[in-house]
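Re: that chain you flagged

S.,

Sorry for the slow reply, it's been a week of failed gels. I finally had a moment to sit down with the sequence you sent. For the record, here it is as I used it:
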Amino acid sequence: MLYVPGSNSRMLEKAFASPADSVSYDLEDSVSPGKKAEARRIVAELLDGERRVKGEVMARINAVGTGFEQDDVDTILRTRHVEAIALPKTNHPDHLAWLVSRIKQLCPPEKQANGSNPLRIIGMIESAEAMVGIREIARAGEGHLNALLFAAEDYCADVGITRTAERTELLYPRSQLVTTAKAFGLQAIDLVCVDYKDEEALRRECEEGRRLGFDGKQAIHPAQVDIIHSAYSPSEAAVRHAARVQVSFEMNDRLGKGSYSLDGKMIDAPVYKQGLRVLLKARAAGMAIPEISEDDVKA
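Prediction finished late last night. Pasting the structure tokens below so you have them in one place:
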């Protein structure tokens, strides 16, 4: 997810060439209070124009209670191209209920929860209150909530955490968010790498996030996107192994066998499920899945 400041015309134009999976036009933190109306107008014109970005079209509105959220939603939801709304400071299920009510009132049938292309909501978890109530938040959304996102800087400010390069102080909230998201069938989106010029720092963060179970990562600069894509896409070796696991497990399952050995490793149902997840990610990334025959995996 690449954030694009709603008031920065140069960045807005560059977003059309971005390979990001999702481009979020920001009306919140990157826009000063005096520029909110202008940024809202500019973004709405873009989202209703002839051109659109390659990835998912998202808008980050202002948080519920700021006084800006009503105009943001009522304007953005009427545009042609908007596919998702990032809801900052999703501290309570009522915040999602309010947004869903506006979707029901303003969006066409295809963008409703039971439509062909439901409008997606990304709940941004940014406070101790949100983390304590994260299960109730994950249950809300009435079919529109698609992902939970960890907003580290606001979370640190709210809790009084000093963020370090090692990020050990953030292991608990990040793991809690991933676990909750997966329990409710939602995607989990990891924190921003604020050192956007440090490629190695970004790679380390991406690898760590992937190991923790995150599905993707936020970006604040176009140069971060390729590194994030590479880190969150499985390697060719991992894809090949997953394909071998799928074929061999399904073959052994038909023969009534439980666990078995493949390439010197024990394979069972959990490993099979992990393999299917790798293949799902590979297909989403447009990677080729090798053709594996049963003869290739016979002992």
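What I noticed first: DSSP finds 13 helices and ten strands in the chain.

Talk soon,
D.
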